Protein: Kinesin-like protein
Amino acid sequence: MNAVGRQRSGTSTTHHQRQHSDNFLEASSNGRWLQSAGLQHLQSSSNSQDFGYYNGGGGQGTRMFKNVQRSYSSGSEIFGEPLTPGAAGRMNNGGGQVSSNEFSPGLLDLHSFDTELLSEMEVPSTFDALSLDKFTRGSSFGDPETYLGYGKQSDRARGLPDINGMKGSTTDKEKPSNVAKIKVVVRKRPLNKKELAKNEEDIIETHSNYMAVHETKLKVDLTEYVEKHEFVFDAVLNEEVSNDEVYRETVEPIVPIIFQQTKATCFAYGQTGSGKTYTMKPLPLKASRDILRLMHHTYRNQGFQLFVSFFEIYGGKLYDLLNERKKLFMREDGKKQVCIVGLDEYRVSDVETIQDLIERGNATRSTGTTGANEESSRSHAILQLAIKRSVNGNNSKPPKPVGKLSFIDLAGSERGADTTDNDKQTRTEGAEINKSLLALKECIRALDNDQNHIPFRGSKLTEVLRDSFVGNSRTVMISCISPSSGSSEHTLNTLRYADRVKSLSKGGVSKKDVLSATQNLRESTSVPLAPISTIEDYVGESWDEDKDGEDEDYYEEEKPTWQKSSKNDMYNYSNSESNLKKSNGQMKWKELPPKSDARLANSDTDLDSLLKEEEDLVNAHRKQVEETMDIVREEMNLLVVADQPGNQLDDYITKLNTILSQKADGILQLQNRLAQFQRRLKEHDVLASSGR
Ligand SMILES: Nc1ncnc2c1ncn2[C@@H]1O[C@H](COP(=O)(O)OP(=O)(O)OP(=O)(O)O)[C@@H](O)[C@H]1O
Structure:
């Protein structure tokens, strides 16, 4: 039995804690509760928002969501990325050619407190000496003990980074902390020509750091409805946001802190074609430019040096992208430091050289394999900018690592789903990718929660990045998504992954969001009540025996549905009188007894507590299902990995069955709770209708 079989390295999601789908509201007992309480107009109002979007944005059946997010750029750069001012384009996809004298806008503002910024001056000779110094083979990453002789750092970030302090003192123990430990950003690309030609719709709505995915689904009777999935992230960048702005939002804030013994990682996650490479490609160059600026100005004469390395992980193996895809090996040294044996690391001191290296690596990545793009989306490309420092100004000794910035262009996330492919290699690759993406998520979460144990052994990717997960580190995740209706499933998977990374974060917004959403719902209960619907709308079969013979005592009202109107492609709330008929055509109608204000108040309080209880129940249930799905998915993945001669599949299957039966027990318990809840609901309704 392979030990990995027991390792729960990840929890990819099938549901989302913060999704409040209109459909869910309708179909869930929450929604039925609103109806039972006569609050279905709340559903109506939430739907009317959709109505507006579809009406306003689309016309003639085309749904194009209007993004109200502030446009960072002139708005004319949807497909053409503007180059850095003054730069002639040399890089594809928006990476502008830069000279060492041109620095990204914004950094000066960021460090406006740095009063000692000097005007352009010559770089000290130690930095000039080598424009391309192939420095080492077998670089050892991140030996904390060698970091400028600093003491062990606390895991907690504290205080603002003291750039000025750093200038004059190498014993400054202040840690950079005004930059969040983890930042999750979503970037939406524009619809591409292919999607436009296929008349695919833009289903992504963005507004500030909020976004919604409007997923069209089919009911069993084949009518369409739209499910709205809402998310909140640290930043949501729409299709009008330029690469410059992406840099400013993501990497720029972490550049200064890598001079302070911090390792930072920026990675792009998303399905193939969602814009990961487009997003990641310009970032290292922009970051190098700012790093060099800091080295040459703020930290000049302090012996800092910049090194570049570029490699990829493909099928669990490492290849050097700056040395003709030479195979690399990962080793742990005596101090448990990860060392990539054979990796070329280049010392650089000007932006042009870095640009050449990046272009060379990118070219090697795509031409080094047979089906270029196809294969590039199956590999993780890692570009590292390492800051080192010469020991006491002595250039004959290897410089000591100070900080590092890693850029990871991850394999297409959908590749992890290739585990069902018939081809064994594809399945194994898919399993490997899946494993690494799950492991990455786990490491980031552990990192963000200041956990002592970081499960970096979960995959080659996280092992390689081990030193980026220990000590003082920062992570920026950029989730790239396609706006098209045809990609909704992958888009939702990407957003759920991002949300799971964020949701357990101490600084995460999700808990707050759930709270405020609940709050909104509660506040809404104070608006006037509308007619009450039948109890069986929300309690299901168990009520059948009780309602026998009581047909005359309640309203019959069809559950409101969001029906797509064939004519105008809008969503209508079907609550007309014609809908109040039972299936036998008989109209059920009864006036509501008058209700006193006091009763309304009581009812509201009861509703509040019952609603809360039900929310807890639904959340608990959802969590159970999520966990089950995670386990099944992970185990399936491991089954694929285990499908090797000599491995005992039976053990895995037994284990899987045990887990599933445990989960089934959990779900049974939830069902019992639900039955209890239904009984209480009935009591509540009886009291309410007797005019308590
Ligand atoms: N924000 C954007 N604005 C304009 N074009 C974009 C944007 N994002 C991506 N594109 C374009 O979409 C196409 C696919 O993007 P890209 O190659 O970056 O996807 P990817 O996620 O890296 O795919 P893979 O996983 O296969 O490597 C490219 O032609 C790219 O130029």
Q: What stands out?
A: Residues 3-62+528-689 form one domain.
